[in-house]
Amino acid sequence: MRTRHLILILTLPAVLACGGDSARSAGQAGSGATSSETASVEAPDPAEIERLRRPFTGDLPEIKKRRHLRVLVSYSKTGFFFDQGRPQGFEHELMTQYVAKTLNASAGTIERVQLFFIPTPFERLLDDLIAGRGDVVAAGLTVTPERAERVAFTEPYLPDVDEVVVAHRGAAPVGSLDDLAGRRVYVRPASSYAGHLEELSERLEAEGREPIEVVLADRDLATEDILEMVHAGVVELTVADRHVAEAWSEVLPDLVVHEQLAVHEDGRIAWAVRPGNPELEASLSGFLRKNRKGSLLGNVLFNRYHQGSTWIANPLTGAERAKLEELVALFQKYGEKYDFDWLALAAQAYQESGLDQGRKSRAGAIGIMQLKPSTAADPNVGIGDIHLLENNIHAGAKYLAFLRDHYFDDPAIEPAIRVDFAWAAYNAGPGRIRQLREQAEERGFDPNRWFFHVEKIAAEKVGRETVDYVANVNKYYAAYRLQYAANQRRQEHLRQD
Fold it and tell me: Is residue 3 part of a domain?
């Protein structure tokens, strides 16, 4: 779904400034830049964007000559993310230090290498690196034999990393890895977790046990998103790097981190470069040998980067499931009428109101779909008395369809992404989303994609609300799909029996 990856350009040379009395020390979250130095994002020159898009595979001398270092990153709430336009996260901090302390330590203003972060879907990171669309991958990659056949890894900045089982507090006990036999484990696709789980599953099956049911998450969900879903009880089991799982368990109390149950031990997390770039690899490794600190992904960075997040609730508890079951017919009726998956409408309704028709907002929105009566009465919707349950769902579905079909009816926008934009417009207003798309295009992002593109501008201009809104609706949608897929499988088994 994410086919084009454009460029986020940070303020330079401010982001690259190093040292001085105002700079934080490496022991203070590992950044050589002040908060003011990392706070802004510049609009790139179109000619510069075009030049950076062109494939380039040169080594460090050529990079210095070009004065551009392009870093492929994948969005996550630990490694690299945006808040109010500020790029933040462990990977951002560490790479900024590398450029400041190594590449530009003795360079004059004209000779400084400029740093470019390119948000990229996780599964495309290595492909884009090899194709020359970036120079370094900095995305929490575990070194695996399969990856090492394709790329060259630097010195690890996080050695001795265990990939451990993480469960919801109410899940059936897991006393050993053998207890995963026949269980469903939900993990990020293209991750080392998935490969190591498959290896364990094959071993269990060879020993006469049931295989593990490895469920691959939607590719827009990061590991931290899946941990939130486990905390909410949406799914029972996942696998994550121990340091990430332990950090998140500090604020997600229903996570149980099974430190003794590692599907892979002593892993190494490193940056990656092309095999034909030995000088760049040596330069990065030299920096990491001096600056790697496992604690950077512990207390300091976690406390700094993860305050104020909106946690996903659990739409699949007994009480919440009972609410949904009472509403299925209405969601199906208006989903079919306006060409929506009824589960998507239900997911939005859960985000809006928790499926509570009695909900009222301070702004005057009412009911399950949290519409204002004036919106429902608009000629483009024209549904009366939305205090009535069916009218409220009908009005919400019709308004969402109006947003999708009136503002985002463009063949260049994929059908599923049109719904993402419609959800964003439902939350922030269609005029605001139109402006954000225009600004995204001006800044070199794809205006026809929400995730990785327009959402970045939304985080800067609007803040977290709309970004979290679309992300949470997608999580609830994933949860409902999982639940109903499981129900269908059970019914098939019953029919077969």
Answer: no
In a domain, residue 1? The reply is no
**In this structure, are residues 429 and 402 in contact, taking their beta carbons and an 8 Å threshold?**
no
Residue 168 and residue 253 share a domain: yes
- Residue pLDDT, tens place only, 183-227: 999 998 889 999 999 999 999 999 999 999 999 988 778 898 899
In a domain, 132, yes or no: yes
Which listed residue (91, 155, 352, 455) is catalytic? 352
Judgement on whether residues 144 and 188 belong to the same structural domain of the protein: no
- How many domains, in total, are found in the chain? 3
Closest CA to 312 of 370, 242, 255: 255
- In this structure, the chain runs to a length of 497
Number of separate helices (H) and strands (E) present in the chain? 18, 12
Cα distances (angstroms) measured from residue 253 to each of 226, 229, 270, 295: 15, 12, 29, 21
Is the link from the previous residue into 447 a cis peptide, with omega within 30 of 0?
A: no
In Å, how far are 335, 363, 444 from 430, measured between CA atoms? 21, 18, 21
Average pLDDT of the residues in 139-158: 93
- Preceding omega of 159 cis (within 30 degrees of 0): no
Question: Are residues 244 and 329 both part of a single domain?
Answer: no
Pair (259, 353) in one structural domain: no
- Round to whole Å and give the CA distance between 73 and 92: 9
Annotation says 352 is catalytic: yes
Domain that holds residue 356: 318-496
Whether pTM > 0.85 for this model: the answer is: no
Alpha-carbon distance of 154 to 75, in angstroms, equals 21
How far is it, in rounded angstroms, from Cα 57 to Cα 369?
Answer: 50
